From TrEMBL, chains A, B:
Cofactor: pyridoxal 5'-phosphate
Transmembrane domains' residue ranges: none
Alphabetized Gene3D superfamilies for the sequence: Aspartate Aminotransferase, domain 1, Type I PLP-dependent aspartate aminotransferase-like (Major domain)
Protein name listed in UniProt: Pyridoxal phosphate-dependent aminotransferase
Family matches, as InterPro entries: Aminotransferase_I/II_large, AspAT/PAT-like, PyrdxlP-dep_Trfase, PyrdxlP-dep_Trfase_major, PyrdxlP-dep_Trfase_small
UniProt-listed GO biological process terms: amino acid metabolic process
Gene source species: Draconibacterium halophilum
CDD domains per record: AAT_like
Domain of life: Bacteria
Single annotated GO MF: pyridoxal phosphate binding
Annotated ranges, domain Aminotransferase class I/classII large: 32-342
Family that this chain belongs to: Belongs to the class-I pyridoxal-phosphate-dependent aminotransferase family.
Keywords (A to Z) from UniProt: Aminotransferase, Pyridoxal phosphate, Transferase
Length: 404, 404
C-alpha cells in the first residue's frame, strides 16, 4: 500500500467531534445525550430562507459564478454597510462556508513555512486550515482568570519572525465568547501596520454581542484596509449551518486575484445555499431579535448555573454562544469521555468539548471545557444538573488551589 | 502591503473561464454568445431532485455528518453496485463537488514535492488541485492523430521517480471524450501494482459512453483495490452542477482516515445538495435514457459537422460530452479570443475553450480547442455555421501540412 500524506497524519482530530463515537455508544445503550459540544444552533432558520428553497422554479441547477451570485453579493454589501463595514460587492467573494473562506485566505496569502500568530484558545480548525496551507500557527494563550482578554500585544511582537505573515483573530470569539475592545483592536492594528502583516478576522458571530460594548470589525481599523481579510458565514447568524455559505472579504486586489483562482478551480459555491442565504438577508428583524433575546437569556441562565456548581468557574462571555468553563477535574478530556462512557443521571448525560483542542500551542486548558448554549433553557437546566451530579462522583475530581 | 502567496501566483487561470471577460464585452455590444466552452449541460435536472428541494419541511438547516448523510451514502452504494463497483457506504465519503474530492484525495495521499503522472490533455483543474497540495504533475501528452489513446505505458514508466506517488486518469475523459480500453486499464493496473502507486480515477462521466465499448472503473481492476481513490460527482450525470455534491471513494482505511480529518475540518458538505442528489438516484430511467440519447445525437451532429468544415478535424469521442478538435489556425488561444472580440456572424459568435490549458506539460494543442456539446442541435448547427464563417476570414488562418 502506498503511504498516506504526512500532512494528513499531523492534521488534528476535531476536538468537537473526536468523542462522537462515545456519544454514539451511549445512545446505543439508551442514554439520552445532550449536545453542548457543537455550534449547531437549535433555533429556526428564517422562514424567508425556507420559503426561497421551497419556491425554486428552475429547471436546471446550474453552476453559479465562481465568486458567487451577483445579487447576493450586492445584498451582502448593504448588510455590511449596516455595520459600518465599507465594502463593495466587488470585495465580497462567496465561499462554501466560512471554512472555505479561511482556507482560501491562508492559501492565497501564505506559503509553506509562513507563520501566523493566533491568540488562543482558538477555533480548532484554524490549525487544520494552516496545515492544509503548509503554514505554521504560533499561539499565545489567554487566561480564564483574566476572562480571556487579548494577551499583551508585546507577547505577539515577541513571536514575530521574518516568516510571520499575519495575525488571525475571531471576534466575537469562538470558543471563549470574548469581544475585543477598541483598545485591543487598536493594539492589533498598530502591530499589523508596523510589520505589514495580514489581519485575518473571523467575524461570523457579529450579530451576537450582549453587553452593549461595540463590535469592532477589522474593517473599522484605519490604515490597514489592504491588510484585512475578513471571514464570514451565514451558518450561525441564520441557523443555517447546512447551507455551507460563507464569504471572504478583502479590498486587497492582489489577494482577491489569488482567491478568485482558487474559487475558479472549485468552480462554484452551492447554488441553493446562495439563494437561501440571499433570502435570509431579508429576514424579519423580529426573527433576529427573538434569536438574540433567546441567546441573552440562555447565556445568563447557563453562566449563573455553572458558577453555582461547586468548583466550577465560567467567565461571562460577551458574545457568540459559547463559554469556556473551568471544572474541578484532573483532566477535561478524560472527564468528557467519562461523561459519555461511564456516567448517566436518570438515563441522561451531556456531551462537552474538552478545551485542550482549542489550545494548540500550550498545555493550558487541561481542566477547561467549551460549552455551546445551543439548547433551550429547560434542557440547559437538565444539563447543569447532570454536570453537577457528575462532578460529585467523578473519580478524577480535583480542586484547584486559589480557584476564582 | 504584505506579499501574496507564491502558490496563488503560480495557480493557472482557468482555460475555460479566462476568456469570460471578452465574452462579457461581446454581450455588452449586443452580440449573442453561444457557450461551448464550459461543461454546464442545458439538459434538465431530474424532477425528483427539484421536487425533493421544493418539499423540504425542516425548520433548521443543520450540518450533516462530515462524511455525508448515511441514507445518501447507502443509496450511492447501490448505485455503484449497478456498475459492478464493489464498495460499501463506509467506503463512500460525500464531498462538495468532485473538485473537493480531488483536493482531499491529493491532500490525503500526497505531500509537498510528491509527483503524480497524468496523461494529457487533462482536466485543467487537476493542476490547480496539485498546486493546492504542493504536489507536482508530470504529464504525458496524447495525440489527436491517434484519437487520444492512452500513451504507451512505457512513457509513464520513464517518468517514475522516488517521488512518484500516483497516476491520475479521467475516464471517460474530459476534455477528449476518450474511453480507456480494457487493455489500457490493465496496463495502468500493472504499473500501479509494480510501483505501488495510487490510482486517482475521475469517473464522473460514466453514464455517458456511446460506442458500446465497456466502461472500466478503476475498481474493476483486480489486485489494486487498496490503491484506488475514485472521484465522482452528481453534477454532470443529473445536470445539477450547482448542488456541489461529489464523492471520494476508497477502500484504503489509512487514506479514509486522512480524508475524514479534512472533511471534519470543513464540517459538512451541503445539506440541500445531498437531499437533492439522493432523490436524483431515484430518477426515472426514462429521464436518464432521454438525456443519453440527446447526447448521442448531438455528438454525431457536432462531430460530423466539424469534420465537414474545411481544415477542421475532430476524432469521434466515445464518452462524456466534449471533443477536442483541431482548427486551421495559428494559435487557438488567439482564435478563441478573436471570436469573442473581433468576430460576429449575423450578430452571433461562439465561445470555445482553447486546448492549450489542458496541456500543462507540453506546447501541444496550440491549434486545438475543447468543445462541449451542451447545447441543443439547432444551436449546435448555428455554432458550426459561425465557426465555418469565422475560419474563412480569421487573419491567422493556417493550414496544417499532412492534416488528417
Amino acid at each position: 500500500m502506498p503511504t498516506v500524506s504526512e500532512r494528513g497524519r499531523i492534521m488534528p482530530d476535531s476536538p468537537i467531534r473526536k468523542l462522537a463515537p462515545l456519544a454514539h455508544e451511549a445512545k446505543e445503550r439508551g442514554v439520552k445525550v445532550f449536545h453542548l459540544n457543537i455550534g449547531q444552533p437549535d433555533l429556526p432558520t428564517p422562514p424567508e430562507a425556507l420559503a426561497a428553497i421551497r419556491s425554486i422554479d428552475r429547471k436546471i441547477l446550474e453552476y453559479t459564478p465562481s465568486e458567487g451570485i451577483l445579487s447576493f453579493r450586492q445584498k451582502l454589501e448593504k448588510y455590511y454597510h449596516k455595520f459600518d463595514i465599507d465594502v463593495t460587492a466587488d470585495d465580497i467573494i462567496v465561499t462554501s462556508g466560512g471554512s472555505e473562506a479561511v482556507t482560501f485566505a491562508f492559501m492565497s496569502c501564505l506559503d509553506p513555512g509562513d507563520e501566523i500568530i493566533v491568540p488562543e484558545p482558538a477555533y480548532a480548525n484554524y490549525e487544520a486550515f494552516a496545515i492544509v496551507a503548509g503554514a505554521k500557527i504560533k499561539s499565545i494563550a489567554g487566561n480564564i482568570e483574566e476572562g480571556f482578554v487579548l494577551p499583551p500585544i508585546e507577547e505577539f511582537e515577541k513571536l514575530i519572525t521574518p516568516k510571520t505573515k499575519g495575525i488571525m483573530i475571531c471576534n466575537p470569539n469562538n470558543p471563549t465568547g470574548y469581544l475585543y475592545t477598541q483598545q485591543e483592536m487598536n493594539a492589533i492594528r498598530d502591530l499589523v501596520k508596523k510589520y505589514d502583516l495580514y489581519l485575518f478576522s473571523d467575524e461570523v458571530y457579529r450579530e451576537f454581542c450582549y453587553t452593549g460594548a461595540p463590535y469592532i470589525s477589522a474593517f473599522h481599523l484605519e490604515g490597514i484596509e489592504q491588510n484585512v481579510v475578513l471571514v464570514d458565514s451565514v451558518s450561525k447568524r441564520y441557523s443555517e449551518c447546512g447551507l455551507r455559505i460563507g464569504a471572504l472579504i478583502t479590498k486587497n486586489q492582489e489577494v482577491k486575484k489569488n482567491v478568485i483562482k482558487f474559487c475558479q478551480a472549485r468552480l462554484s459555491p452551492p447554488l441553493i445555499g446562495q439563494i437561501a442565504a440571499e433570502a435570509s438577508l431579508d429576514a424579519d428583524p423580529q426573527y433576529m431579535l427573538d434569536n438574540y433575546n433567546e441567546y441573552v437569556q440562555r447565556r445568563k441562565f447557563l453562566i449563573d448555573g455553572l458558577n453555582r456548581i461547586d468548583g466550577v468557574y465560567s467567565p461571562i462571555p460577551m458574545g457568540a454562544f459559547y463559554t469556556v468553563a473551568r471544572l474541578p477535574v484532573d483532566n477535561a478530556d478524560k472527564f468528557c469521555a467519562w461523561l459519555l462512557s461511564d456516567f448517566q443521571y436518570e438515563g441522561q448525560t451531556v456531551f462537552l468539548a474538552p478545551a485542550s483542542g482549542f489550545y494548540t500551542g500550550s498545555d493550558k486548558g487541561q481542566d477547561e471545557v467549551r460549552i455551546a448554549y445551543v439548547l433551550n433553557k429547560t434542557d440547559l437546566g437538565v444539563c447543569l444538573k447532570i454536570l453537577a451530579e457528575a462532578l460529585k462522583v467523578y473519580p478524577g475530581r480535583k480542586e484547584r488551589k486559589g480557584a476564582v
